[in-house]
Amino acid sequence: MKSSARALALAFVLALAVHGPGTAQMPDLRQMSGTPLPSSELPDGVVSVRVVRQALANNLVGVTVTIEGAASPTSAPTDAQGRAIFSGLSSGRSLVASVTVDGEVVRSQAFQVPGRGGVRLILAVGLSAAGGASGAAPGAAPGGSAGASAGGATGAPSATPGAPATPSGPPVPSVPARPGQLVLGTQTRTIVDIANEQLEIFHIFEFANATATPLSVTQPVTIALPSAALQVSLLEGSTPQARVFERQLVVAGPFASGRTLAQVAYRMPITGSREEIAVALPLPLMQTNIIVRRTGDVRLAEPTLPQSREAQAEGRTYLTGTGPGLPAGGTLRLVIDGLPHHPVWPRYTALALAGVIVAAGLWMVYGVPVDASRRIATLEARRVALLTRLQTLDHVDAAADGAGGRAALLQDLEGVYAMLDAERERATSRTAAAAERRAS
């Protein structure tokens, strides 16, 4: 499965493309700040730390960034682009980047330098003072507040004063939680990638509480994932209140003021050229954001997104789109068409032929007279055909013949070789027996 860092990287790189020009949306620095993103574009052992104040456009020049966790702390000033560059860092150690600006200390998540490439980081200062300066207020809908949406989760007070904040939201005030309305904010998005005849799906759920106090719910928020989902996992950066049980994401309350993130990933097999992803949402969704990798004839058939365009990330092309929200109880339904899919009938045909060969061999073993030379020639022709297919598969792409194409070919070859050996041994025995009869 792709790492959480890659999922977040795609979301960050494509965030501006998802929100069309003329909107007030910007990538949320609360999510980006301190999150390490592996980068193959950087030289090996290099860490690039960019420092900004309240917004991506406000680079801080000349501030000192420190990397801790190596043999000794290493410091470097930021350049005209707000970046401090550290080189020659060895992989395997747990490192942390930090910066102090006007008495405010901002630290990154712990990270390790990869064996190849480097790591990029953004450290954002002044976010507490800026409030929602880095983007729209969490959960805010055009023309109104998140609390104006109907159908949100409600319940009785359940939190204790001074509950800890989630990693993805601002500190929880030291006041009891109270009932209210919870929504899925405008940073909620779904990312669909394609690899090895499988869909790799990432959901980033932003639970938005537009009130100034923690929000309680009568029961945990449960989001059911598709029944075909495989290897469901919770990604790093998710709130500790989130858990995954089988194919369900469960997030317990109370929810801090602002935003709480839960990120989940899973795979779905591609069984045809058209696949559907359906996720029932128990809360109102303020805005639909979808990112789908474009390869070949792949396209997003549903839903229709009024604001859509193509964007580049990691050398690949993605379709990004924004559409209207959904009410509580609605279903986020994606239909992807033109998927790369190869039929499995060639494999089953090969297996059927192998079965016919085995049956013919058993028939021959039990005394039915056959022409041995013709039988050996047939088996040798079958062997040549299988070897040719195997060579073609090796020179093209193993994935092009299905996940088990190579294994099936090798199995067929083993059967053919075994029957050739047995046939040649029987032919030798028959020749020896005939010679003995002639001699006697």
Using the coordinates shown, work out and report the CATH topology of the largest domain. Immunoglobulin-like
What's the number of domains? 3
Share of helix among residues? 10-25%
What is the alpha-carbon Rg in Å?
Answer: 30 Å
Q: Specify the structural class.
A: alpha+beta
List low-pLDDT spans.
16-27, 132-175
Helix-strand string: HHHEEEEEEEEHEEEEEEEEEEEEEEHHH
| Mean pLDDT, all residues | 74
What is the CATH architecture assignment of the largest domain? Sandwich
Count of distinct strands: 22
How would you describe this protein?
This protein is α+β, with helices and mostly antiparallel strands and 440 residues long. The protein folds into three domains: 29-134, Immunoglobulins (Immunoglobulin-like, Sandwich); 136-341, Immunoglobulin-like; 345-439. Helix content is 23%, strand content 31%. It contains seven helices and 22 strands. It has helices at residues 4-13, 15-18, 29-32, 127-130, 345-365, 372-395, 405-439; strands at residues 37-39, 47-53, 64-68, 74-77, 83-86, 96-101, 104-107, 118-125, 183-184, 189-195, 198-209, 221-224, 230-234, 242-245, 248-251, 258-269, 274-280, 285-294, 299-302, 307-313, 316-326, 331-337. The strands form five sheets. Strands 9, 10, 11, 13, 16, 18, 20 and 21 form an eight-stranded mixed β-sheet that branches. The longest helix is centred in the last third of the chain and has 35 residues, at 405-439. It is elongated, with a radius of gyration of 30 Å. The N and C termini lie far apart (71 Å). Mean pLDDT is 74; it is low at 16-27 and 132-175.
